[in-house]
Amino acid sequence: MATPSTSSRRRGLLLGTASGRDAIRRIAVAVTLLALVTAVGTVGYVALGFGVLDAMYQTVTTVATVGFREVRPLDDTGQVFTMVLIVLGVGTVLYNLGVLLEGVTEGHLREHLRRRRMDRDIARLRDHVIVCGYGRVGRSATRQLVDTGHAVVVVDSDASRLEGVTEPHVLGDAARDETLLEAGIEHARALICALASDAETMYATLSARALRPDLVIISRARTVDSKDKLVLAGATRAVNPQLIGGRRMASFALYADVAEFLDEVMHEDDLDFRIEQVRLGDHSPLAGRTVGEADIPGLCGAQLLAVRLPRKGAFLPTPSPGTALAPGATLIVFGSPEQVGVLRSAAGT
């Protein structure tokens, strides 16, 4: 069951969205009414004997009440028609001005145009990462992804959390298909789900897996018991931050140099070398060869640390020269971005 704060955030989201759409709808109605009054006035003056251009000119000057002279003298019928047109036209113009002023001052029109631009930016993204939930874990994940040069789309149902976010973002429920599609899940490379509760994270994980069976989904588990349930729901991996934090603290206590080295090569932006993963494509010239024949250090200069067998198979640390490299296998290497780039080209990815 949703908490009162969650329910109020959702109501605020729905009201804000409805208000923006209602403002755009009112502007469309106002412009349509103005066009209709102009058309009726033009047709009426044509029926009174005016030419088409003269009829349109007379209509516009009448509706705008600018006080120019009449194009031609009017009989009694023409005067009555003009008076009716003035009443209808002035009312329509005032309504247009009021609606436009309201849309601009309340920010609905500006927000609508900004949202349209952001939607176009998201639609052009490819291989980005979707971060669902912009709490402490979501913000930390977003910062790390952006710092390492990856495109990110943030999803959250709380508008206050998205204030000041510079990355593309979507305001909505991450468990809804339309929200995930708006975030570009069809072209994403991965999704990180860190919502307020395990239940919300599980629903969002189920929705994402249904839309993209091949997507990498990393879900945050608030309890150790929920990790297995999230994997069953479709998460590629379920992560418990408290458990990982405790293990890292123990690692720093027992193996400080090893832990610090791994921290630097995985997270330090200024370091020239990193640990990276490279997947062998089906048509890679390295596929079907052995580790010795591939000679990764001679090919690109990077060091081969391990090989993971295809389809998320077992890891083979420090593989022997006779280890076969099958298509779909993943190479875990240590090297510079340039070296890894050469290997990716040879791997066909």
TrEMBL record:
<dbReference type="Pfam" id="PF02080">
    <property type="entry name" value="TrkA_C"/>
</dbReference>
<dbReference type="InterPro" id="IPR036291">
    <property type="entry name" value="NAD(P)-bd_dom_sf"/>
</dbReference>
<keyword id="KW-0812">Transmembrane</keyword>
<dbReference type="InterPro" id="IPR013099">
    <property type="entry name" value="K_chnl_dom"/>
</dbReference>
<feature type="domain" description="RCK N-terminal">
    <location>
        <begin position="126"/>
        <end position="240"/>
    </location>
</feature>
<keyword id="KW-0407">Ion channel</keyword>
<feature type="transmembrane region" description="Helical">
    <location>
        <begin position="80"/>
        <end position="101"/>
    </location>
</feature>
<dbReference type="GO" id="GO:0034220">
    <property type="term" value="P:monoatomic ion transmembrane transport"/>
</dbReference>
<keyword id="KW-0472">Membrane</keyword>
<feature type="transmembrane region" description="Helical">
    <location>
        <begin position="27"/>
        <end position="48"/>
    </location>
</feature>
<feature type="domain" description="RCK C-terminal">
    <location>
        <begin position="263"/>
        <end position="349"/>
    </location>
</feature>
<dbReference type="InterPro" id="IPR036721">
    <property type="entry name" value="RCK_C_sf"/>
</dbReference>
<dbReference type="Pfam" id="PF07885">
    <property type="entry name" value="Ion_trans_2"/>
</dbReference>
<protein>
    <submittedName>
        <fullName>Potassium channel protein</fullName>
    </submittedName>
</protein>
<keyword id="KW-1133">Transmembrane helix</keyword>
<dbReference type="InterPro" id="IPR050721">
    <property type="entry name" value="Trk_Ktr_HKT_K-transport"/>
</dbReference>
<keyword id="KW-0406">Ion transport</keyword>
<dbReference type="InterPro" id="IPR006037">
    <property type="entry name" value="RCK_C"/>
</dbReference>
<dbReference type="InterPro" id="IPR003148">
    <property type="entry name" value="RCK_N"/>
</dbReference>
<keyword id="KW-0813">Transport</keyword>
<dbReference type="Pfam" id="PF02254">
    <property type="entry name" value="TrkA_N"/>
</dbReference>
